[in-house]
Design a protein that fits this description.
The protein has about 90 residues and is of the alpha+beta class. It is built from two helices and five strands, in the order E-E-E-E-H-E-H. A three-stranded antiparallel sheet has the order 1-2-3, with no helix packed on it. The longest helix is centred in the middle third of the chain and has 10 residues.
């Protein structure tokens, strides 16, 4: 697996380290961060996403809370990259 370290939350204590890596072959991001609270998960479910899509979080997924300071480490999407269905819907809105 070709991973590249992108960044770590500079404001986090040494035993809590939100971190982002990039899988260079797939472009996927691997993110270590804080698990969303039960209230945050319920809020996400209430807001929902796209019509007809379940708001349940499957056992193999989780909702994380990424500190705003970590947004600086997200790679910029290059023009022409596919953003998937949700990305296309958001960019055409």
């Amino acid at each position: 697996m070709a991973l590249r370290f992108l960044g770590i939350d500079p404001d986090s204590p040494t035993d809590e380290s939100p971190t982002i890596w990039l899988h260079e072959e797939t472009g996927d991001l691997l993110i270590q961060s804080y698990r969303a609270t039960e209230q945050e998960v319920n809020d996400c479910k209430e807001v929902g996403s796209i019509p007809g899509h379940s708001t349940d979080v499957p056992d193999h997924e989780t909702i994380i809370r990424l500190p705003a300071t970590m947004l600086d480490y997200l790679p910029a999407r290059r023009e022409g990259d596919s953003g998937g269905e949700a990305g296309r819907a958001a960019s055409s809105a």
